[in-house]
Write a structure and sequence with these properties.
The chain is 44% helix and 20% strand. By secondary structure, it is of the alpha/beta class. A hairpin with a 4-residue loop joins strand 3 (95-106) and strand 4.
Length: 298
């Protein structure tokens, strides 16, 4: 059995093993896609288009496809994309390669690292990982957002993959866009709201947009590789325990932590002590792709 381990599945396992089981072992997905994920896909699509040399209008068109049917999200995307292009109008796109797919072996038991990398750049005579992020958090210089990125599982997975592909990465270029707190006013059209957001981006570019370069530390990368390998072995052990457990979900421990459970897509049934199985799928869910992010970047 070949299991593809993505940064999303690693994060899910560390947050809650039971949630990992439902999402990546059972393949359970909510019928309604989360708005935040759709917006992330849309913004990434627009940035990929920019890296290919497309105009702002062309990039926006590529992004809006992912929020089709949500007019407010489309208006927000429009204001931010126009704001981004204005903020970096004098800068050339850094990426020499975009949307890089990878898969390679991890340890034993058929596990393979997999994912899609935003971009690879050439800087200062070496290679750099280019990573686009959208966040609701503050991105000013003093924000602890930047401190947490150092141990970010996704970025370490990507650096490891690029090294395996023959691109030893010396630094990471974080390109972060803050999602707006402003919303459409009463009786304001979405077109006017989008224009107001663009004006706010122009007036406060440092509030919405930030780029930072951080050196890759070999110790951080080795710690990540060790942790990832141990997670794979734990997954293999849990699968083995399923054969003699009361239910397949039993070996996968539920975290029962409020901050984690509140944002979990499975809380609607898991918090009530209910379990999902292949034959008993909770209302509002279906069994789908176990790693949809490998087909479409989040």
């Amino acid at each position: 059995m070949i299991t593809k381990i993505t940064s999303s599945s690693l994060n899910k396992f560390l947050a809650c093993q039971r949630a990992y089981f439902y999402r990546y072992e059972l393949g359970l997905m909510p019928v309604e896609t989360a708005e935040a994920l759709s917006f992330g896909k849309a913004f990434h699509a627009a940035m990929e288009a920019r890296n290919k040399g497309m105009t702002c209008e062309e990039a926006l068109a590529d992004g809006i496809i992912h929020v089709a049917g949500n007019e407010q999200s489309a208006a927000t995307l429009s204001g931010l994309v126009y704001g981004y292009f204005a903020r970096y109008k004098d800068d050339q796109p850094l990426a020499i390669k975009s949307e890089i797919n990878f898969t390679h072996k991890i340890g034993k038991y058929g596990f393979r690292a997999a994912g899609v990398i935003d971009g690879l750049a050439e800087l200062n005579g070496g290679y750099a990982l280019l990573e686009y992020k959208t966040t609701s958090q503050a991105i000013d210089t003093d924000s602890d957002y930047w401190v947490r990125l150092r141990s970010n599982i996704q970025l370490n997975q990507y650096v490891d993959a690029l090294e395996t592909l023959g691109y030893p990465v010396r630094e990471i270029v974080y390109d972060v866009t803050r999602k707006p707190a402003i919303r459409p006013k009463q009786n304001e059209t979405l077109e006017d709201y989008s224009a107001r957001l663009f004006e706010d981006c122009a007036a406060r570019p440092d509030f919405y947009f930030a780029q930072r370069r951080v050196s890759v530390l070999s110790d951080d990368l080795e710690r990540f590789r060790t942790s990832r390998r141990e997670i794979c072995y734990q997954i293999a052990a849990n699968r083995k325990r399923q054969k003699r457990a009361a239910t397949k979900a039993s070996p996968w421990l539920c975290c029962n932590q409020q901050i984690t459970c509140n944002s979990c897509e499975f809380k609607v049934f898991c918090l009530h002590g209910m379990e999902a199985t292949e034959s008993e799928i909770p209302t509002g869910f279906y069994v789908g792709e176990r790693n949809p992010e490998l087909k479409q970047k989040i």
